[in-house]
């Protein structure tokens, strides 16, 4: 929104708008969340916990062009068709910044309703990869610091051996040449891809995984190097490119998109991290703490200058894929998320932002079931697998006390003791649409009430 539009809104001459940022790490379900949220705000039969929908205050909802003409439009129609069509399937994930504007016509209810006519409120949803947000931490690190941290962190991750092999073949004193730089960057990027596939969260620089039109550019052609190479030409050139990445890629993203967010959704695949093991859970905890540093108003340095007096008013942390668990385990999933984000949430709460943690499924793919195992009834879910087969599934029992998971993760455990947590890939369920209803979900209405209920 331009300066003139902001001025008109401040004077009450323009329709109010709420700018919601949606991010999360890979496979957290950003695309599905946005698609289902918009569909359920347009057809509100399943949005009972959104008070403005339940009491009839929202009269109608429609899509219109977003205010930012240079930002790609979120492809809502194609994603909705993928999820709800005759052969439902999961849409492609987020690969760049996109935006969608949903406008709501709202008539206030209650004793003062007659004194105020209907109002149009615009919901601007900005979708961006969580990997890009993790790049925030790079802004406060030198190439030497980033290299040391990355080389230490990657030791036990997939693809680390291949990168070390590529590094061992380098003569640090040799004259710089581009094929060598490309070889190292490709080996490091391959490591990042493998780590992400294995459930790791902190895979930076984020543009290495989602390069878009920058693929092959010098700003994306560098890799971490040990301090023993610091006097060589390759090290000097990689340090220069690292600095260019921060100034030419990371900083413009925060200036142009992030600094204008009013409300923020952070989606977390907690179940995926638990399945991957204690190191992935600890990595997720650290990554989310890093992400939350971006929401600290008054923070010193370049980010504070960009944000100025603006602050993110509300932050929703959502553990996705709650439909993979029977409802009896949902409170445990929420408790694990809350404990994982405790340090980061406390920082945000202290700075004045309202925060909420909940377990959700933006698109419900299962029904609840019971599996008989010996003399025990296990609370399970049933759904359609990606290959078309029907299956009942019990993923394991999450602990009542989150410390049972978080303490081993922080202490460096490599596997869970006396527990085995599984995940299953379910396909979107067919034939779930009803007239006047959006796609089936779990607590998406509660999420919407937290994010926008106060403004409706």
UniProtKB/TrEMBL annotation:
What InterPro entries does this protein's entry cite?
Answer: YcjX-like (IPR007413)
Q: What is the recorded name of this protein?
A: YcjX family protein
Taxonomy, top ranks, is: Bacteria, Pseudomonadati, Pseudomonadota, Alphaproteobacteria, Rhodobacterales
């Amino acid at each position: 929104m331009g300066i003139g539009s902001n001025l008109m809104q401040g004077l009450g001459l323009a329709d109010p708008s709420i700018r919601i940022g949606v991010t999360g790490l890979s496979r957290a379900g950003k695309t599905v969340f946005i698609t289902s949220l918009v569909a359920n705000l347009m057809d509100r039969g399943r949005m009972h916990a959104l008070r403005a929908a339940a009491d009839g205050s929202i009269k109608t909802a429609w899509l219109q062009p977003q205010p930012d003409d240079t930002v790609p439009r979120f492809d809502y129609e194609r994603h909705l068709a993928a999820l709800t069509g005759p052969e439902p399937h999961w849409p492609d994930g987020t690969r760049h910044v996109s935006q969608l504007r949903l406008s709501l016509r709202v008539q206030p209810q209650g004793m003062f309703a007659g004194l105020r006519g209907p109002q149009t409120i615009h919901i601007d949803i900005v979708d961006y990869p969580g990997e890009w947000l993790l790049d925030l931490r790079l802004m406060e690190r030198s190439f030497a610091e980033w290299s040391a941290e990355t080389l230490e962190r990657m030791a036990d991750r997939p693809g680390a051996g291949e990168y070390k092999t590529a590094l061992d073949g380098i003569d640090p004193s040799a004259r710089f040449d581009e094929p060598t730089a490309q070889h190292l960057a490709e080996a490091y990027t391959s490591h990042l891809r493998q780590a992400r596939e294995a459930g790791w969260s902190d895979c930076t620089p984020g543009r290495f995984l989602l390069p878009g039109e920058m693929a092959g550019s010098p700003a994306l052609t560098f890799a971490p190097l040990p301090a023993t190479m610091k006097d060589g030409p390759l090290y000097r050139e990689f340090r220069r490119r690292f600095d260019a990445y921060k100034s030419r890629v990371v900083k413009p993203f925060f200036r142009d998109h992030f600094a204008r967010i009013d409300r923020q959704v952070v989606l977390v695949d907690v179940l995926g991290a638990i399945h991957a093991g204690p190191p992935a859970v600890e990595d997720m905890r650290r990554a989310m703490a890093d992400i939350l540093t971006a929401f600290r108003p008054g923070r010193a340095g370049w980010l504070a200058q960009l944000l100025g007096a603006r602050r993110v008013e509300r932050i929703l942390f959502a553990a996705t894929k709650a439909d993979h668990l029977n409802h009896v385990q949902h409170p445990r999933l929420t408790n694990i998320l809350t404990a994982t984000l405790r340090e980061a949430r406390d920082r945000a709460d202290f700075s004045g932002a309202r925060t909420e943690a909940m377990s959700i499924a933006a698109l419900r793919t299962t029904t609840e079931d019971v599996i008989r195992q010996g003399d025990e009834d296990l609370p399970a879910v049933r759904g359609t697998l990606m290959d078309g087969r029907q299956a009942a599934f019990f993923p394991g029992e999450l602990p009542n006390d989150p410390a049972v998971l978080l303490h081993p993760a922080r202490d460096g455990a490599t596997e869970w003791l006396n527990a085995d947590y599984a995940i299953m890939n379910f396909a979107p369920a067919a034939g779930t649409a009803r007239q006047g209803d959006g796609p089936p979900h779990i607590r998406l209405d509660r999420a919407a009430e937290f994010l926008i209920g106060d403004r409706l």
